[in-house]
From TrEMBL:
Residue ranges constituting the Hcy-binding domain according to the UniProt record: 1-305
Cell membrane keyword on record: no
Keyword Zinc recorded: yes
Gene Ontology terms for molecular function: S-adenosylmethionine-homocysteine S-methyltransferase activity; zinc ion binding
Binding sites annotated in the UniProt record for Zn(2+): 223, 290-291
Enzyme class: transferase
Documented EC number(s): 2.1.1.10
Keywords: Metal-binding, Methyltransferase, Transferase, Zinc
GO BP term (any one): S-methylmethionine cycle
Cofactor binding summary note: Binds 1 zinc ion per subunit.
Cofactor dependence: Zn(2+)
Protein name as it appears in the record: Homocysteine methyltransferase
InterPro entries xrefs: BHMT-like, HCY_dom, HCY_dom_sf, Hcy_S-methyltransferase
Length: 308
């Protein structure tokens, strides 16, 4: 498992927004399956998008599995008799494509198998508020099959990301521990909250769960503005000795109903590149970008981090 088993996690540069990179390459991700549609219909484009980030200097590839769920496929019109098998196949394919891209680029980068939140499946875009109405046990059961499939691939680590709910954090930690594969956990925080989970829970509760997990190697925040992600990382650092993860988005908000990106009011803080020293000083060891962060920006972040 490489660096994921090292006592001290090395500094790694994550990739950027894979789905939005696919869009920048001319692919239509506006449908309900988002990037999973391209995974299904044009897998060569997924490999090419991974290569773009590797060429920019990314040390980690996040697989195109975030939106791959049986429920999502059913909602997109896949027959009930085929949905489970298709979901399993696409999950495995997402890892194979990332591995192939790394081989083509001659890099020994880590492959992080993305485990998206319930909100990205039947939750209808609720990954930013965690308003699921489900118990921890129900969420664990919903995640179980996907975690098991991805744990049985060539992925180096499972990445449970964009998690908005403390119940989902509990559910995922339990499933990741049960699977026994090294894992990373990244949550979303409320804008302007100074480190409060999207469902209103203080992230110190996330830190406690992650710290007691046998599988989770690092914990962090993603898919928020630079200022919000940095505030969340700093809050986590107060309550855990685990290495931290941070990968903010461009600062825009995803409008799930209209399937468009909506500008947010600037939080008045510096951008991702200018904030690299702040992230590193906060204890972030896995640093990159989320939605709408491009390979060019990842290359700049890498240069800044190496120079720090």
């Amino acid at each position: 498992m490489g660096p994921m088993t090292d006592p001290v996690l090395p500094r790694l540069i994550l990739d950027g927004g894979l789905g939005t990179r696919l869009a920048d390459r001319g692919n239509d991700i506006s449908g309900s399956l988002w990037s999973a549609q391209i995974l299904r219909d044009n897998p060569d484009e997924v490999t090419a998008a991974h290569r773009d980030f590797f060429d920019a200097g990314a040390d980690v590839a996040t697989t195109c599995s975030y939106e791959v769920t049986t429920d999502g496929l059913l909602a997109a019109g896949v027959a009930a008799s085929e949905a489970d098998d298709l979901a399993d196949s696409l999950l495995r394919q997402s890892v194979r494509l990332a591995v192939a891209a790394a081989e083509q680029c001659g890099t020994d980068a880590l492959i992080a198998a993305s485990v998206g939140p319930y909100g990205a499946g039947p939750g209808r875009g609720t990954e930013y508020d965690g308003d699921y109405g489900l118990t921890t046990a129900q969420l664990a059961a919903w995640h179980r099959r996907r975690v098991d499939i991805l744990a049985d691939t060539e992925a180096d680590v499972l990445l449970a990301e964009t998690v908005p709910s403390i119940r989902e954090v509990e559910a995922l930690a339990g499933e990741l521990d049960r699977a026994g594969t090294p894992a990373l956990l990244s949550v979303t925080v409320k804008p302007g909250s100074d480190g409060v989970l999207s469902d209103g829970t203080d992230v110190r509760e996330v830190a406690a769960i992650a710290s007691s997990s046998s599988a989770i190697r690092a914990v962090g925040v993603n898919c928020g503005s630079v200022g919000d992600v940095l505030a969340g990382a700093r809050r986590l650092a107060e309550h855990t000795d685990l290495p931290l993860i941070a990968y903010p988005n461009s600062g825009e908000r995803w409008d799930h109903a209209h399937r468009v990106w909506v500008p947010r009011q600037n939080d008045g803080g510096p951008g991702l590149l200018e904030s690299v020293p702040d992230f590193l000083e906060a204890g972030v060891r896995l640093l990159g970008g989320c939605c709408r962060v491009t390979p060019r920006e990842i290359a700049a972040v890498r240069d800044r981090a190496l120079a720090y």
